[in-house]
Design goal:
The protein is of the alpha/beta class and 1024 residues long. The chain is 48% helix and 12% strand. The chain is elongated, with a radius of gyration of 38 Å.
Length: 1024
């Protein structure tokens, strides 16, 4: 342990922030007028990039440097991150005089929150603290109440057609939207009910009824004597603060005195309640900055259309317009790509090139998306491949979709019984097993299936998928640890978590139990491993850093859930998390990312700027997104009814559609005005995913799909240099060699020629089998070697695929067919029922694939049965093993069927389940059949046969479903001497030091093609 004496001194250093304040000499005339403005209300208008926020910071700086008390100044903006950034910038602009009691920059919500929790209210008799509910938490409350409604519909007034929707997440969300919009407009359930008659809205009475009960239940919860908090919705908080100020003169006076000067940025985002609050608090020292063309919060109640008239009505007479837009984009690229992944790679390539060639900092670049979606993981992947550090804004990635959180959620779902362990959920379980918490891959999963199937108890007819699922929660069989490692890890974790959950049902405890017990594939605690990686830095460190941030956020969201929804239950939390598409309202502190490219939604990008910006994903249907929000209950219609006071449904729909178009246009303006130097606009062109009208408007008349570009990374550079080295001549040789040498001497191993597979000489030229060694060969390998010597060699050395379903199926048919030997009276139905019984063990596929494979197997069995009925020979042995020596080789194997002909000679039959039969001519010299015949002649069966006379052999094919009966390929009796010589020769060839690759019909499906020098993708084996 480290003693206090030895503890190194820790010094906290504030991140250096560069202020956006404009130096006094650089202010333009209008900006100067704003900075020096005093004593009357002022409205400042300006487009994106005209320097509104910078002027605001300069104006506050000017006041502070002129001796005004920073505590008397309030700056209001929208969004918590914008407020925090504004705070840092004001502090950076006033390094010597920014000591304040309260933060200078706030949002309206945080201002209202401060007013509601002011001690004056406590002395006025209220001793409870207000806490703000997030949208997700509100949904959870609404869902709880709707669940009660469903249990007893007689106490509700929901119309019949809405009843099926009551249990859905979407309905709760629409209901929340509707209630919030009505609340923001100062309405109450009774007022809305009265309005419903006037505007002939048939769902409003039922909603009002629900809203009344919702308010009553919430109030009841807050009234509990033991409860010391009042939960409040975001839509209510400002209204509640206004009411408090209006009803308490002392409170109002306090804040009017406190904030002598108020600056408001982004005022176009304000709603009626916020304007009212501002009106109550502000005196003449009020400066408002706005740009009505870039309002993005209309769906939350912002009212940009009436902004200017409202301000004039409230007595703001002075107006200054900032005329100069400083974001003069020098370069605009509009690019169309073939897929989302190409689009992500293109942007990553552009940013990496800008960073390496033009020295643009990572933090000076951003990708802006319309909404969270499939682009986020694709971008994260592309940026990781291109070694670009990235910071994904919380709003662009839902917490439940975060790869670091997913396994935790899955484990919690299993423990809570929310995720049934059935093959239908295999995809999610497989993701868990293949993830960092278990560490399985395709091969280990397959090995697991085989191991579990072998261990399966008699009578248990579950397939291997179900066996894995079962063993997640039951004890694992007594097998070698290595065979089941990933499964055991998860099994152990679930066991531990279940134990902990039995002691505490709290969601935070449940998540903590998962987090603190989870281990990675090496048995190391995930939390320790990620922490260490984050400290070590680098690319892996950046990923670990993000993972830790996500976990901290998860805990914070869970803590808030427990605090706000008393008795909410862990299952409700998980359900809520999975239903939330946007990570709502997280207030967790995350690690400082420093230099990283930002990925964010256009709503989050508001008020920010970067040197390079990519506006990605301009697809039809998503950007613009003209789908009506709240289409079932009509929250948008409600807003328009309040705005325009009309009832005509068609008129209302037309107005809200026009409103949506205007909203989307403003969002586009915001996205396109974030870059100061370069703007990249991208979209994907696919059959079912076309670029949007916005993209087409921005793109040149003739635009083609751009091709994928080579990554500007170290491995890609080495690959390029190696390619160049091959064809280099003259001076180029010198250049390439020097470049590779420089890279190699700087630790790039791939640049060292001795590490290039194709260039190194053979490690040995000795024969694979020496004269003293014995070569063991199987009849099938004789055939394989005759086909292609290299393939045989590589397969013998491990280059073989695991057994496919087709191979397992073939073995099953063999086993069932062989049962006719012991009981020739078995009917086809009996054989079929044996096949059916064994099927779940044979086929690991699901759904229609499984049915298809079963039908194939059943047909094969039918064909074989028919052939067997017609067969005149007598069956003597099945699956009979043999072994005989030939020169330096031992030939061994097993024969499917040995029969006796009418003239008492042995006849060999080999059953084939493959779909394609070999030609009749090839069958005549087939080495496998020849060696089987030789086994009889050479008495390979150790006296089991009465004599050594053989009359020929045949292959019977049952796998081709285009033909109704079996296909027979016959081979005449062998010339034993000739075939023995041939096989001895093959054995000699097999023992040599080199092997020939021979192109043949089966090259297409060859498992070792990528190591075959005569195939394009295997050429690197012999060429540099
Ligand atoms: S691809 Fe063809 S030639 Fe190459 S190893 Fe495979 S079978 Fe032989």
């Amino acid at each position: 342990m480290v003693s206090p004496k030895n503890t190194p001194e820790i010094k906290l250093i504030r991140t250096a922030y560069k202020s956006d304040a404009i130096a006094a000499d650089d202010l333009n005339e209008q900006q100067k007028a704003v900075v020096n403005h005093r004593s009357t209300k002022l409205l400042v208008l300006g487009k994106g990039g005209s320097g509104k926020t910078s002027t605001l910071i300069s104006a506050i700086t000017n006041r502070i440097s002129n001796g005004e008390d920073p505590n008397s100044i309030l700056a209001i903006t929208y969004g918590r991150s914008s407020a925090s950034k504004l705070r840092d910038q004001i502090a950076a602009a006033n390094p010597k005089a920014h000591t304040v009691n309260e933060p200078i920059a706030r949002t309206f919500h945080s201002l209202a929150f401060m007013i509601l929790n002011d001690p004056i209210n406590i002395s006025a008799g209220e001793n409870k603290k207000y806490v703000l509910l997030s949208g997700a938490e509100q949904d959870a409350q609404i869902r709880e109440l709707l669940a009660q409604d469903i249990k007893d519909l007689s106490k509700t007034s929901w119309p019949k057609e809405l009843i099926p929707a009551l249990a859905t997440r979407g309905f709760a969300k629409e209901l929340r939207e509707f209630i919030n919009r009505a609340t923001e407009r100062g309405s109450s359930p009774d007022e809305l009910l009265a309005a419903s008659k006037k505007h002939q809205q048939k769902y409003w009475p039922a909603i009002c009824d629900f809203w009344r009960r919702y308010k009553a239940v919430s109030a009841l919860k807050d009234l509990t004597p033991s409860n010391s908090i009042i939960r409040i919705d975001p839509s209510e908080i400002v209204i509640e603060a206004v009411e408090k100020l209006e009803s308490n003169q002392i409170l109002l006076e306090k804040y009017r005195k406190l904030f002598k000067v108020i600056y408001v940025d982004e005022f176009q985002e304000s709603d009626k309640a916020q304007r009212k609050l501002l009106q109550l608090l502000s005196g003449d020292e009020l400066v408002i900055f706005a740009d009505p063309d870039s309002a993005v919060g209309r769906f939350r109640g912002a009212d940009p259309e009436n902004l200017l008239t409202d301000l004039e009505d409230s007595g703001i007479k002075n107006k200054i317009t900032l005329p100069t837009v400083y974001r003069n984009i020098k370069e605009k690229n509009v690019v169309m790509l073939a897929s989302v992944s190409d689009e992500a790679n293109f942007i990553a390539h552009q940013f990496r090139a800008a960073h390496l060639r033009d020295g643009i900092n990572w933090s000076a670049m951003a990708v802006i998306l319309r909404s969270p979606g499939a682009q986020v993981p694709a971008l994260a992947r592309a940026f990781a491949v291109n070694s670009i550090p990235v910071e994904i804004d919380a709003a662009a990635l839902s917490l439940a979709d975060n790869p670091a959180i997913k396994p935790i959620i899955t484990i919690a779902q299993i423990v809570l019984g929310q995720l049934k362990l059935t093959p239908a959920n295999w995809e999610q379980i497989e993701e868990l097993l293949r993830g960092e918490f278990a560490g399985a891959d395709a091969i280990s999963l397959r090995a697991m299936r085989i191991a579990l199937t072998k261990e399966q108890k008699e009578g248990n007819q579950n397939n291997s998928t179900q066996l894995i699922l079962d063993h997640l929660t039951t004890s694992t069989p007594d097998l070698e640890w290595q065979q089941l490692t990933p499964l055991k890890r998860i099994n152990d974790l679930i066991k531990e978590v279940k134990k902990d959950y039995a002691k505490s049902k709290d969601i935070s405890d449940l998540l903590w139990s998962i987090w603190s017990n989870a281990k990675n594939y090496e048995g190391e605690l995930i939390q320790t491993y990620w922490q260490q990686q984050a400290i070590d830095g680098g690319r892996a460190g950046a990923v670990a850093d993000q993972n830790l941030d996500a976990v901290i956020t998860l805990f914070e969201v869970a803590r808030r859930f427990s605090q706000r929804l008393l008795g909410g239950g862990a299952a409700l939390f998980i359900d809520q998390l999975l239903g939330e598409k946007i990570l709502s309202d997280s207030i967790t502190a995350t690690a400082q990312k420093g230099e990283a490219v930002s990925i964010m939604t256009v709503h989050s990008a508001k008020g920010l700027q970067w040197r390079y910006v990519a506006a990605a994903g301009m697809q039809e249907g998503s950007w613009p997104n003209l789908r009506q929000r709240g289409s079932l209950l009509g929250s948008e219609r409600l807003v328009e009814i309040f705005r325009h006071g009309i009832s005509n449904a068609q008129q209302l729909d037309a107005i809200s559609a026009a409103g949506l178009v205007a909203d989307e246009q403003r969002l586009l303006n915001v996205a396109l005005s974030r870059a100061t130097e370069k703007l990249i606009i991208t979209a994907v062109s696919q059959e079912d995913n076309q670029p949007s009208r916005y993209f087409e408007k921005l793109a040149p008349d003739e635009i083609k799909i751009s091709s994928r570009q080579r990554a500007i990374t170290q491995p890609a550079l080495v690959a390029e240099l190696r390619r160049m080295a091959k064809d280099a001549t003259g001076e180029q040789v010198e250049f390439v060699s020097r470049a590779l040498k420089t890279l190699a001497s700087n630790g790039v191993k791939a640049a060292e020629p001795r590490n290039w597979v194709g260039i190194t000489p053979p490690s040995t030229t000795s024969p694979v089998i020496t004269d003293q060694e014995v070569l063991r060969i199987s009849p099938s390998s004789l055939e394989s070697f005759t086909e292609c010597g290299l393939k045989w060699m590589l397969e013998q050395s491990g280059g073989r695929d695991a057994d496919s379903t087709a191979q397992v199926l073939g073995s099953a048919i063999h086993v069932i067919a062989a049962q006719l030997k012991d009981d020739p009276s078995l009917s086809l139905d009996q054989l079929e029922s044996k096949l059916k019984g064994a099927w779940s063990l044979i086929d690991m596929n699901q759904g229609w694939i499984k049915d298809y494979e079963y039908r194939r197997a059943s047909l094969m069995l039918k064909k074989f049965y028919g052939w067997n009925l017609e067969n005149k020979n007598t069956l003597v042995a099945v699956e009979e093993k043999f072994e005989f020596k030939l020169g330096k080789a031992i030939v061994s194997g097993a024969i499917d069927r040995i029969e006796l002909t009418a003239d008492n000679k042995y006849y060999i039959v080999d059953l084939k389940t493959g779909a394609t039969a070999i030609s009749k001519e090839d069958a005549r010299t087939n080495k496998q059949l020849q060696s089987y015949q030789l086994a009889v002649v050479n008495d390979g069966f150790k006296n089991k046969l009465d004599h050594q006379e053989v009359d020929g052999a045949q292959l019977i094919y049952v796998g081709d479903h285009k033909v109704k009966s079996v296909q027979e390929r016959v081979q005449a009796k062998v010339d034993a001497k000739e075939v023995s010589e041939q096989i001895s020769q093959i054995a000699l060839e097999m023992s040599k030091s080199s092997f020939i690759a021979t192109i043949n019909d089966r090259c297409r499906s060859c498992a070792v093609k990528s190591s075959c020098p005569i195939q394009p993708n295997g050429r690197s084996v012999i060429t540099p």
